What we know:
Layout lengths: L13 E5 L10 H8 L3 E4 L5 H4 L7 E4 L11 H13 L4 E5 L9 H10 L4 E4 L4 H8 L14 E4 L1 E2 L2 E2 L4 H4 L6 E4 L5 H10 L7 E6 L7 E6 L3 H6 L5 E5 L4 H14 L1
Parallel strand pairs: 1-4, 1-5, 2-3, 2-4, 6-9
Antiparallel strand pairs: 7-8, 9-12, 10-11, 10-12
Helix pairs in contact: 3-4
Amino acid sequence: MPDLPALAAPTSAVTFAGAGPGAAGHLTLAAFQALTGADVVIHDRLVGDEVLALIPAHVVRIDVGKAAFGPSTAQSDINALLVAQAQAGRRVVRLKGGDCGIFGRLDEEIDALQAAGLTFVILPGLTAATVAAASIGQSLTRRGRNTGFRIVTGHDIDGFAEHEWRSMAATGEVAAIYMGKKSARFIQGRLMMHGADPETPATLVENVSRANQRILPATLATLPEAAQALEGPAVILYGLAPRAAAKSAQTLKEAQA
């Protein structure tokens, strides 16, 4: 195996790295090299075990996991920890599941570093939406179907999150819904209230890219019941069905025409 290409020596106090949704194969080369050169890795709960196993034994690992509606490390404590470790002169990697800039509170941590006069660099990672779509054999955009797609959250700091439901409910729209397990019935109601077809496909991908990944095909009408079957973290692909199921449905529709 050839040697990995060398990256420039780190010049920032903290490296923010996206770990991808779980599998080690989705970690970028830059993120891998940052992990192997770190003194301290401060990581989230959703970082995959395969990725954590790549961290050298001498590197200090600090788990600052958060769980929706469950025990969590306070964001203020994470901010203070980042600052303290960087000010101590350690090479710090802040490892976040998926892409660190998508629902990862990245800006809050950057603000804390900048307030302390510390520098940072961001290494993007694969987000769950793209990997989930690949796992069902679909693309997130398709000519003639949708010219864009949304990445939305099922809940925010105020509760279930509101969105621009009318446009999202239009035929052919695609959205990746993160943290939608608890809010599935709310999402269903909002979309149907704004004219969405109850038969619009939706696919729930649980534990994206991991050995225990599950793919649960559904429709908007059955979305809340499908979400109740989820046990691990999942992304909801609204507007997409697994490719085989989508082709079967299209064949049936053409036969009935």
